Amino acid sequence: MKSVRRVTQVLEVSQAGAIVPIDLALPSEAKECFGLQAIVTGLFPGVESVIDFGEYSVSFNGRDTHPVHQLVPYESAQTRQVSTTRIGLLPLSTPLVSGSPVTGFYRDLERQQEPFIPYQVRISFNLITE
Amino acid sequence: MRQHKYQLIRVNVPEPGASVRFTGETDRSFERLAGIFVAIPEPIKEIGAALGLKVGGQEVFDDDHDLRLITCGREVAPNEKFFAFPEHIEAGGAAIEGRLVDAGNTAEGYPYEARIILHLTQDS
Fold first, then answer.
1. HEC readout, A34-90
2. Cα–Cα distance between B45 and A76 in angstroms, integer?
3. Residue of chain A whose alpha carbon sits nearest to that of B59
4. Is B68 on the interface with A (CB under 8 A)?
5. Which member of A10, A34, A86 has the closest CB to residue B76?
6. What span, in angstroms and rounded, lies between the C-alpha atoms of B61 and A4?
7. Taking CB atoms and an 8 Å cutoff, what residues of chain B touch A82?
8. Would the pTM count as exceeding 0.90?
9. B121 forms bridges with which residues in the sheet?
10. How many CB atoms lie within 10 A of CB B118?
11. Distances in Å between the alpha carbon of A62 and those of A35, A41, B51?
């Protein structure tokens, strides 16, 4: 494999049910996105690990390519301690047009109890570069 | 025959929310950085933590890279704990520069030592 760059997009989620836009420019030397991972960053007392804490949708090349509309899980520290797996990448094979935007959204699925605790979602783009 | 080395880097985290820079050098006898694993004393400290890393001046992880992508649960077998780099990363005495950002999730358990383990290989 040629050179790889990993670009992290950080989204701030400030209220229950929020829809947060994704809008970024990947490095111009990026030729292909070969993997994605979205991960919730926060501690939520009373929330067990859930598979549908949020959902996200990502389009590449000015919405010409829409390879991902996927759930974002939440894993509590207790669950993580006994986990027998490691977090992997969601595999993609999406060619990129240089300089074209990446767009989409993240939506909170209201799995927290009151009061709402603001949190971040980190989306990691794994890119093959020239 | 492929030879392997697991090189340990210790990073002391003094207080909640600390941003700690670290430097080092990969073992000169091994040409490739094949994988990485980070061990933190408590899983709760992994949530929200980030690790940026450059090897030989090349960015491997940006500063917002989520630590949980290169850690794993305690029950994962030792030989499966490592994140394997799909790309070729030159080691062989390359400079290591990094930054570990603690999430500050708890007030207890400080200071602590994060252990970064590099999987180096050499084909002979």
1. EEEEEEEECCCCCCCCEEEEEEEEEEECCCCEEEEEEEEEECCHHHHHCCCCCCCCE
2. 12
3. A5
4. yes
5. A86
6. 10
7. 73-75
8. yes
9. B4, B32
10. 24
11. 18, 28, 30
Q: Are A74 and A47 a contacting pair, CB within 8 Å?
A: yes
- How far apart, in whole angstroms, are the C-alpha atoms of residue B41 and residue B35? 20
Q: Show the tokens assigned to A49.
A: 């690990």
How confident is the model over A78-123, as pLDDT tens digits?
A: 887 788 888 889 999 999 999 889 999 999 999 998 899 999 999 9
Q: Do the Cβ atoms of B61 and A120 come within 8 Å?
A: no
CB atoms within 10 A of CB A32: 16
d(CA B47, CA A9): 17
What value of ipTM does the predicted structure carry?
0.89
Q: How far apart are CA B76 and CA A86, in angstroms?
A: 7
pLDDT digits (tens, 9 = 90+) for A15-61: 999 999 999 999 999 999 999 999 999 999 888 889 999 999 999 99
B113 strand-pairing partners:
B12
Please, are residues A38 and A56 in contact by the beta-carbon 8 Å criterion?
Answer: yes
Could you give the 3-state DSSP secondary structure of residue A128?
strand
Cα B69 vs. chain centroid, distance in angstroms?
11
**Cis preceding-peptide flag for B111 (omega within 30 of 0):** yes
Residue whose C-alpha is closest to residue A61's, from A9, A96, A21? A96
Of residues B27, B38, B82, B32, the one with CA closest to residue B58: B32
As a 3-state breakdown, chain A gives helix, strand, coil percent values, each rounded to 5, of 5, 60, 40
